[in-house]
Amino acid sequence: MPKKIRELKSLLLKAGFTYRQGKGSHTVWEHPLLPEKITLSGNDGDDAPNYHEKRVISDLQKLKEIEE
Length: 68
Fold this sequence. Notes:
By secondary structure, the chain is an alpha+beta fold. The chain is 41% helix and 16% strand. The protein has a single domain (5-67), classed as Metal Transport, Frataxin, Chain A, CATH 3.30.920.30. The chain has two helices and three strands; from the N terminus they run αβββα. Strands 1-2-3 form a three-stranded antiparallel sheet, covered by helices on one side. The termini are far apart.
């Protein structure tokens, strides 16, 4: 079962990401240790597309490796 957008946002906040509002339902997430930004689209109650889930998990793993 896919995660909800709000779950992905929660994971990013706990990992120390900050966000700014984009156009419409888009939010742009950044972390000072990672060079790339993550753009999530959709409302909090929407199912997250697979590519959003994969990107968030991938970036969280990269961050974990950097912090170790």
